[in-house]
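TICKET #2291
ISSUE: user wants both folds in one file
ATTACHMENT 1:
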Amino acid sequence: MLGALMALDCLPRRDTALGAVHLESFRVALEGKEPGVVVVAHCDLVAAVRKVIQGALGHAFHPSPAELRMICNAAMEERTTEADRELRRQRELEERRSLRLIYRTDEQRARAAEITRRFHEQIEANCEADEIEAIRVKYDPAELAQIPDAPVDATWRRGGGR
């Protein structure tokens, strides 16, 4: 804090306060709700001093403690807004990446189609075997042998619409 105030000493003062009182008033201006604890970040104080020296106050005099605190608050707001904007930009970029379409080559599509076809064949084979086994368990083999086969015509389809 003292280094920042020393950088402002090149500006003319409106009044001639005692050095200790002057320093204490700036310390109070830069502290938070809890007395004695300075809450203004160093980077915000440096940015505020830079703005004052560059003429952000609209006058050429040394800033009052309240003016310095207002500029520090503005610098903090600018810094946090920029950080929030960057975080939001990163989230949007990640979201766009996750929603981006994945283009497959013909070889990849053919491989996936073959894997899917084999999977469905295996499932159908297992289902037929399970159905036949369930019927064998449920009925006596001698009784099953007495059931005549149903006639099959060209319009007959297996169950399940397949």
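ATTACHMENT 2:
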Amino acid sequence: MVETKDGQNGDLLPSEHLFANPKPARSVDEIQEITIVVEKGGKDDADGEDINIYKDKHTNNDKATGGWAGYVDRLEETVRTCLTTHTQIFTSLTKGLALLLYFIYFIYCMNYRFGDGGSITLLVGTAFLVLVILCKLFPDRLCCFERISSLLTFSPRRRRVIRYGLYVASFLALITYVGLKVLARNPKNAQSLLGLFGIVLMCFLLSKKPSKINWHPVFWGFVIQFLFAAITLQTETGHDIFRWLGDMVQDLMEYSFIGGTFVLGKNFRRMGIALSYGSIMIFFGSLMGLLTHWGILQFIVVKGGRALSFILGTGPVESVVAFANIFVGMSQSALLVRPYFPTMSKSELGALITCGFASVSGDMVALLISFGAPANHLLTAAVISAPAALAISKILMPETEEMGSIAKASIVTEEASEKFQTILGAAADGALVAMRIVVNAMTNMLAFVSLLGLIDAILLWFGDRAGVQGLTFDLICGYVLFPLTFAMGVPYEDCSTVGSLIGIKLFATPVVGYAKLGKIINNRMILEDYVRSTNGTWHWEGSDVFLDDSNTTLVNGVLSEHAEVIATYAMCSFSAFPAIGIALGVMTSVCPVRRNDVMKLVGLAFFGGNVASFATGAVAGLTHISK
């Protein structure tokens, strides 16, 4: 407000007062504020005139000294308006130009050199890029399994004929293949059939409603699992593909050490698991954040989930979650379908939890590979556990409710508005999420390895009182789980060792179990190199192997390659007892209204997740041929 007061020699007009008593120069903001207040306050013409003196002065000053500023301001406003109005056009032109430049580069590279590993990687990546673009441009024509399903609509009678015909044809094909290609070469692999039939029978007896079991997803779930295992373990092409994928993951892991060296020093890999393997987890978490930000992960998960739903006849929600668990953990996959939680049936909710227990996330796979687990087998196990988990869950928790609209729902991942707006934000968020996983995993490892040491000491003390030597937790698990490992196809002499590994995984974490498995695999390589180079002798000393010529002890001994493969597949899951608390926390926080249902289903889902892993191990034992 402009204040005026009476002077001693008479009242001054506002204009006279302002110039007679000069004050410090006002800023532009102050002058504009005065103008607004006077105009809104309804002051007299004199007030308005006086204010205009400052306004005119400011305007004239702008014209005198700020002509270029005004021109630049108008130009900036014009450009901003143009970009805002034609955002879609400019975005399309930018993407089109980028794609054109990329394909020019691709054609040049293919013409320059083709046939090595790098060219194959570039070709596969470009093919995937083209698939993504086509699905974005023609969403209703490509990758639309609902459209295919509608085209394959037949009468109920014809549908039954086709369905049972496919059952019979697939079953006969499997029997023929197993008989001629597997058992004819290695009859001992038939031992794994005992485990498969035993697992199905046990799940049937423990089912919540055996009469309601839909055997269609069960049958096709095991068929898909067998096909993937056969392709990976029986064919050279499949083996090479997953070997190539494993090498890619291991190459990616090397980049994590660059950041670790920069932050922690060049010798940080010798400072323990927390630093050396933590850097891998953080790097892969950041990479997952980027893939999510760009929409690549959502594209793979949704399309793969719809394909799984189309083949197995399961609901889209549980199918998407099952496929998502190949790449992400239980908490991330639950967030993908968070809007559907309130309307899920109990069977779908149980399948979701079972799939979370039966798999490991992509960054955890990288961590387990770093411990020495075979990369190609671990990647295959992560893939084929998805249909196995759905099959087992549909036996234990069959659908007894009318799914209604949720069965026909089209799963859509979170919109771009819910994602980070920058690449750096997505990468940083992924790294922070991975950091929490690292802290959780390392804390559990520290606690449970220490507890296992204490338990072993107590058992040794009690055993020594009774004259029993070597009574440890590993030994007890080896005997208790001996029948299970034998049924999966593990050779008799290796059953106790594999049983102890599974026991450690169940009561501690998969990380602890794979850490020990990695040492045993490394022991076998050392032993093979020792025999090949020196032709020396060796012998067992308890559970260890002693190399006579080099005076070396291989702690925890060795396993056959066949037993290593089965153990790798059978332990590839999140289903350890500490994970029950994590599952309860995740599921109840995502949807608190389903807390009671989650509490009732989590125990059976935990059992189902373990059984699905054991079924995966049995399938691996059936199809793997030792060299």
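RESOLUTION: both attachments delivered.
EXTRA DETAIL ON ATTACHMENT 2: The CA atoms of residues 365 and 378 lie 7 Å apart.
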